[in-house]
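[[Local backbone shapes]]
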Amino acid sequence: MKNVSKVIAFSLIAMLIALVIDLVMFHQTGTNLLSGEVLWRAGLIVALWVIVTVLAALRMRFCGYVTILVMLYYAAADFGGFITVSPKSSAYGLSIEILSILGIVISVVGIWYGIQQRRQYDIDRINQRGSAHGNQRK
């Protein structure tokens, strides 16, 4: 159960960082932050977090795989912000780069917890099958 709360916590932090990075990148390119493109992308980032949270809480079969894929998406968004921020040497650029690196690291930790989530699901399934077979033998 401890892993579920870690997955939710790290995915929330990764989602918030990816959302901020995306909004800053849209603002940098001069895109209106209330345009459909920006709102769709922000909605997608939040919806992915909701999916990860629901699947982790319900301990669904593919929750580990979904967590890993969503964390990879967040890491890619953070990396995109890292390489495209301009000007890089300003205080603004450095803060975005630091936030991007932090987001990538948190996403990697989230991937690790996604792997652990899948491992724990497999262990639980093996234990359930073992106890079911043990009851049939008696």
